[in-house]
Design brief:
With 404 residues, the chain is an alpha/beta fold. The protein has two domains: 306 residues, Aminopeptidase, CATH 3.40.630; 85 residues, Urease, subunit C, domain 1. Helices cover 38% and strands 25% of the residues. The protein is built from 13 helices and 16 strands. The strands form three sheets. The chain has an eight-stranded mixed sheet, with helices on both faces. Strands 11, 12, 13, 14, 15 and 16 form a six-stranded mixed sheet that branches. The chain has a two-stranded antiparallel ribbon with strand order 6-10. A hairpin with a 7-residue loop joins β11 and β12. It is globular. The chain binds zinc ion.
């Protein structure tokens, strides 16, 4: 009894210490955020410049090697920090247009450089070896597209290994056989949490390694690490963490790396109101990952168990950018008017280096089971049917004027 009690007390003390570290990382983020990146769109060449600058600051704390080259001969870097027994592999931007975590990795390197004498960083570097592939798909990043330059979705190439980029990831995994891995992605920013209607800012998954979605030691450890990450994030964005679909995907890397013996956590950066560049989500990635590195270094994540992860609600799709509620939509001919909700999503349009946002009507009718980041009250207002046709680009400012 006494022994159980002392284990519980120890777990509480460890969790309190971890929570304090996370809070400090969150509150002081602006003092260590990597200043060189302020937009989601950056190229491999720019990343290389940033890594060189960070190498200067980190000195012998970081080694940088070329793990291989992409189909278009861009070097794919592997960064190594720390000399501890627990190897942790992180790979980001396997999909070229999913750079949120890549920016967070730069913040993490900058933090380690600034705080190298702090007890937390010393613990992380003494107990873990961090292996980081910051941009696995540089050709896709150049085009800001999901797929590689050979047209392959790398996350469906874990078995055939047709792309050089996929072979590099498999090669690094096999060479180091890390205990823990983080598979870093972005998802549609309109995913929601369960039936709550709140936006999913980050979704997590301990991928299945078989169709039955069984648990073994490897997947259980992934769930413990995901639980530690959940607890960190819930300090700041409670109610905005969702669980990604855990159907086994035989061709995906997360699922296979879990099967090959590395405990994998998938981290999907989602959406946040008024954060199209995802800078707040970048901060959450940075704080979450740094905190969890420490939890891995102290092994406090084992005490966390799997429940904090198991109990988070599933990713759902019940969110639009704007919903206009109960507007009266009128037709120019004899058709009777209808009272309808109108859902509009914002889309980014690129023109050279500039981007603008426009609205598109994506749903129409009774949308009472959906939510809007913004909800406009259209009750008693009249809208011409031609100005809100399904799938059309619309004049948002004009519509706003009509509703006002
Ligand atoms: Zn992805």
């Amino acid at each position: 009894m006494l022994r159980i009690l002392s284990v519980l007390v120890l777990a509480m003390i460890l969790q309190t210490a971890e929570a304090q570290f996370s809070k400090r990382l969150y509150d002081t983020y602006d003092s260590y955020a990597f200043p060189g990146v302020s937009s989601r769109r950056f190229t491999h060449a720019e990343l290389m410049t940033h890594l060189a600058a960070l190498q200067q600051k980190l000195g012998p704390l970081m080694t940088m090697e070329q793990a291989g080259v992409s189909a278009e001969n861009r070097p794919i870097q592997l960064l190594t920090l720390g000399r501890g027994p627990v190897k942790v592999l992180l790979w980001s931007q396997m999909h070229g247009d999913e750079p949120t975590a890549t920016m967070a990795l730069l913040d993490i390197l900058h933090y380690i450089a600034q705080q190298k004498e702090s007890p937390e960083v010393r613990t992380i570097l003494a107990q873990t070896t961090l292996l980081i592939v910051p941009m696995l798909n540089p050709d896709g990043a150049q085009r800001f597209q999901r797929r590689t330059s050979q047209g392959i979705d790398m996350n469906r190439d874990a078995l055939r290994l047709q792309t050089p980029e996929a072979r590099i990831l498999k090669g690094v995994r096999d060479r180091f056989q890390p205990e823990i891995g983080f598979n870093l992605h972005d998802q549609d920013p309109r995913y929601t949490v369960g039936d709550q209607g709140t936006v999913a800012v980050i979704s997590l998954l301990a991928p299945a390694y078989n169709v039955e979605k069984s648990d073994n030691d490897v997947r259980t450890r992934a769930k413990q690490v995901a639980s530690a990450l959940t607890l960190v994030l819930e300090q700041f964005v409670k109610g905005h963490i969702a669980k990604y679909d855990d159907t086994f995907e035989p061709r995906a890397f997360g699922d296979n790396i879990q099967k090959w013996g590395t405990s994998v956590v998938l981290v999907e950066s989602g959406g946040w109101k008024d954060d199209p560049e995802k800078m707040y989500i970048r901060k959450l990635n940075c704080v979450g990952l740094l905190s969890v590195f420490h939890a891995i270094a102290t092994r406090s994540y084992v005490q966390t168990g799997t429940m904090p992860y198991e109990r988070i609600p599933m990713n759902t799709r019940t969110l639009y950018d704007i919903i206009i509620r109960n507007a009266t939509v009128v037709f120019p001919d004899g058709r009777a008017p209808v009272v309808a909700d109108i859902a509009v999503n914002r889309e980014e349009v690129r023109d050279g280096g500039n981007s603008t946002w426009r609205g598109r009507v994506v749903d129409f009718g009774d949308l009472s089971v959906f939510y809007g980041h913004e909800e406009w009250n259209g009750a008693g207002k009249t809208i011409e049917a031609a100005s809100v046709e399904l799938n059309d680009i619309i004049d948002l400012p004009l519509l706003r004027e009509t509703i006002r």
